[in-house]
Design brief:
It is a single chain. The protein has 464 residues and is an all-alpha fold. It has one domain. It contains 20 helices and 2 strands. Helix 1 runs antiparallel to helix 2, helix 3 packs antiparallel against helix 11 and helix 7 crosses helix 10. The longest helix has 32 residues.
Length: 464
């Protein structure tokens, strides 16, 4: 209710003030958005110990959904906090940006709390439509327009798979409600399995797993950098959160080899193609594909430990991926040619010109690579341990080897920052205290969860 009301209130604030007060209006909207997200986080903590189904059995409230809500809201809070200066520098500082963030967050929360297939669809579409608009928010840049249209066309196409899958499941079980379907104990009929397969394909697309990952590099490169950070971390977390809820009811345990194949191919594709990238946004886009593969390993068997592992990984991933894109947004060189703005060459010597930004970026990259003492290490540890516990040791070994491949391209960025002299003109950064604060929050979270993972685990252990 707070998130929905916040999105509507932002739209009202944008319209009631005259255009001559635009700068003040955007500042008011910025602070109001932060306050609404902080309030929503506080209320979500109050739901951690609850367990009930509301609104005619459409919405579930329990520890799992509450942990996901807190992670999603916190990720959006970091995004909003880092947005103000970026929007001003790109001359796209419009109130509807914050409204779109709120409504996309509302869609994500609906997906994760859904107890009905129709609510999953509504939440997914609400999130997706907002992301289509946000991807093209820099509408004077051809790359941003291109990313929006690619995302929209492919997203609309894959929505058909989700709806057809829902139709097959409804046709066989006579219900779209999770509780009713679980109580009916549906047999593994052909049409029922086709329905589950089609829904699984739609989720593969939204999470960016192989073979439906083709949209990610272009969309992530063309979208505004702050939006890319949110899509690749918070949006992906929502899709995986919905998968946890959906497949803990419907089960993927009958097709572990299919899940294993998807996970391995996703890790392989993301890590190998990332090796040859020269644009840092594309590099992290392929990296995010690889991370989708790591998370998919947790879905080999839906049990208590694997869900704990997936949730810990997702919480860590929001912090490290969002933080990395915040640093990229602060480092972006203001050149007319958008293609060269985020080249790896522009990071040469950054450690000498701006050591604080370089230090934080190094921490985010170490965590993405799974190097201790940061949370990313424990995320991968728990994910691969969940595979070992169900005797899929070979999947864990392949995953560990491929994650070592990933270390190379993360280290390459670190070498550019610290061991090279600045190339050409020094990249100038416009200092933004809010963006620095957001990056520092992410660093503290990664270090705290890495040194003391119980900060997260003590909440998610209550899920079962």
């Amino acid at each position: 209710m707070i998130i929905a009301g916040g999105g509507l209130m932002v739209m009202i604030l944008e319209t009631i003030f005259p255009r001559s007060f635009k700068d003040k209006t955007e500042t008011i909207i910025f602070y109001f958005s932060l306050a609404a997200l902080a309030a929503a986080t506080a209320f979500s903590f109050g739901d951690l110990a609850k367990n009930f189904i509301i609104y005619n059995k459409f919405i579930r409230v329990n520890t799992l959904t509450s942990v996901l809500n807190i992670a999603l809201i916190a990720g959006t809070f970091i995004t909003v906090l880092s947005s103000k200066k970026y929007l001003e520098s790109e001359k796209i500082n419009h109130g509807e940006y914050y409204s779109l963030l709120f409504f996309s967050l509302l869609g994500m929360m609906l997906m994760c709390q859904a107890n009905d297939l129709i609510v999953v669809f509504v939440g997914l579409e609400l999130m997706s439509i907002c992301f289509y608009v946000l991807a093209g928010f820099m509408r004077r840049r051809i790359e941003s327009n291109e990313s929006a249209i690619k995302y929209f066309l492919l997203g609309a196409f894959l929505t058909g798979f989700l709806l057809m899958g829902i139709a097959f499941i409804y046709g066989y079980t006579g219900s779209t409600n999770f509780t009713a379907i679980a109580a009916a104990h549906p047999q593994k009929d052909t049409f029922y399995l086709i329905g589950l397969t089609l829904v699984f394909i739609a989720f593969i697309f939204k999470t960016g797993a192989f073979p439906l990952q083709m949209w990610i590099p272009d969309v992530y490169q063309g979208a505004p950098t702050i939006v890319t950070g949110m899509m690749s971390s918070v949006g992906k977390t929502a899709a995986f959160g919905a998968m946890i809820s959906f497949f803990s009811i419907f089960g993927l345990n009958d097709i572990p080899m299919v899940v294993a194949l998807v996970a391995i191919l996703t890790m392989l594709y993301g890590n190998v193609v990332a090796l040859v990238q020269t644009n840092i946004k594309r590099l992290l886009a392929y990296s995010s594909i690889a991370h989708a593969g790591y998370v998919m390993v947790g879905f080999l068997s839906i049990n208590a430990f694997s869900i704990h592992a997936i949730l810990f990984y997702l919480v860590s991933y929001i912090l490290m991926q969002s933080g990395a894109f915040i640093i990229i947004s602060m480092v972006e060189s203001k050149t007319p040619d958008n293609g060269s703005r985020n080249s790896l060459e522009s990071y040469k010597g950054l450690g000498k010109t701006n050591p604080m930004l370089s230090l934080m970026m190094t921490i985010f990259l170490f965590s993405l690579a799974g190097i201790p003492p940061f949370a990313g290490f424990w995320g991968k540890y728990y994910i691969f341990l969940s595979a070992i516990q169900i005797n899929y040791i070979w999947v864990a070994i392949v995953g560990i080897l491929l994650s070592l491949v990933g270390v190379y391209y993360y280290i390459k960025i670190i070498l550019y920052m610290w061991f090279y002299e600045p190339a050409g003109e020094t990249v100038t950064q416009q200092r933004s205290d809010f963006s620095y604060t957001a990056a520092v929050i992410s660093v503290i979270g990664l270090f705290a969860f890495g040194v003391y993972p119980e900060l997260v685990l003590r909440y998610i252990r209550n899920i079962f």
